[in-house]
Design a protein that fits this description.
about 375 residues, alpha/beta, 7-stranded mixed β-sheet, two-stranded antiparallel ribbon, 11 strands
């Protein structure tokens, strides 16, 4: 687990990384070690007290009735789709400006991903494109909260309700986000979270959760994650091993009470970036009161040249997330599928450091370097 030496190394190397999630664990090291020791003292490592407690605590945080933890965000999507009744031969409408796991999960339940373009302002699913893509085989809609900015769930739900479609929200990047005071994770028939280490609420490995207010759906996910067993440990339907480990749940319980503070720190950093980059020749992330800034992605021309200069001349590392839309990956490519906004932003988006342990105290320096690099690369 990183220590104070890691902070000193960052200064000594004169490199500001794009992200370094180990620093967040270091801040909570003592409490995490106590939680791990508690698990070993009990000797119960699978579906025990820590999982049950975290599910209750995360549900309370979200304002949801049911949280069912699973082994990864991908499994959360798979189990939720199955529990919603999506099956082989169905179409699920989603976006291509996302990690490939969103589309992979659709295929893993036998359905077909149908990609629609994103809104150029929100960078999330365009509700108009959604409505235009609905066909006779459409069974569900899978919007993605890109970079911690919630999709327009009110508009998406309205379209889905008109066509009697299930909605599964991919909240892998939006822990703590909200719309009008309602938490991301409570705005669809079901929602899927990832607890990958880089997330705002991340474990020390893979993990995920399905969130819903539907008791029957939650119960089905519990069976699916545990070999299809019912409460009497009899297999009543196909299932698999998709459980969250007790150790990960214990770590998440330590970090959950700090989530809102982490969100507020990121929002403060985002506000500083906006002030420093105002008027620069670039597009800032969408303005949304409920965004949590999992990434702070600017859009600019000559992105790759600017990124290289930031690293070589200024010692600042940045990220490129989803350079290719999923529809441009060889496996998912289909003839005639062109998504102009997704493809343009894939060439332009550049994620600046926003993790508080990395970016605090450096925003002015980073912003000045971005402006200088844009000028130098014209």
């Amino acid at each position: 687990m990183p220590s104070e030496a890691d902070h000193q190394r960052l200064d000594r190397d004169a490199l500001i990384p794009q992200a370094l999630p180990g620093l967040r664990f270091a801040e909570h090291r003592a409490a995490i070690e106590q939680a791990i020791a508690r698990v070993f003292a009990r000797g119960n490592f699978i579906l025990g007290e820590e999982v049950a407690a975290f599910e209750t605590e995360f549900a309370r945080y979200l304002g949801a009735r049911h949280v069912v933890t699973v082994s990864s965000g991908t499994q959360a999507l798979c189990f939720a789709l199955s529990a919603l009744g999506v099956k082989a031969g169905d179409d699920v409408i989603t976006v291509a400006m996302t990690f490939a796991a969103t589309a992979a999960a659709i295929e893993l339940v036998g359905a077909r991903p149908v990609f629609v373009d994103i809104d150029p302002v929100t960078r999330c699913m365009d509700p108009r494109a959604l409505e235009a893509a609905i066909g006779p085989a459409t069974a569900a809609v899978l919007p993605v909260d890109l970079h911690g900015c919630p999709a327009d769930m009110d508009a998406i739900n309205a379209v889905a309700q008109r066509h009697r479609l299930a909605v599964l929200a991919d909240c892998a990047q939006s822990h703590g986000a909200s719309i009008g005071g309602r938490r991301a994770g409570t705005l669809a028939n079901a929602s899927a979270f990832s607890f990958y280490p880089t997330k705002l609420l991340g474990a020390a490995g893979d993990g995920g959760a399905v969130v819903t207010n539907d008791a029957a759906l939650a119960e089905r996910v519990r069976r699916l994650r545990n070999y299809g067993f019912d409460e009497t440990a009899r297999a009543v339907e196909p299932g698999t091993n998709g459980r969250l480990d007790e150790l990960h749940a214990a770590i998440l319980r330590v970090l959950l009470p700090d989530l809102d503070r982490q969100v507020n720190r990121r929002r403060a950093l985002a506000a500083q970036y906006r002030a420093q980059l105002n008027g620069a020749p670039l597009a800032l992330p969408p303005v949304h009161d409920g965004a949590v800034y999992y990434q702070f992605a600017i859009a600019l021309e000559r992105r790759d040249q600017v990124r290289q200069r930031l690293r070589t001349h200024h010692g600042i590392d940045t990220g490129v997330h989803f350079e290719l839309g999923v529809h441009q990956h060889p496996h998912f490519a289909r003839p005639g599928v062109v998504l102009p906004v997704t493809e343009r932003l894939g060439r332009q988006l550049l994620s600046l450091p926003i993790q508080p342990e990395v970016a605090e105290g450096h925003v002015a320096e980073i912003a000045a370097a971005v402006i200088e690099s844009i000028g130098a690369c014209r």
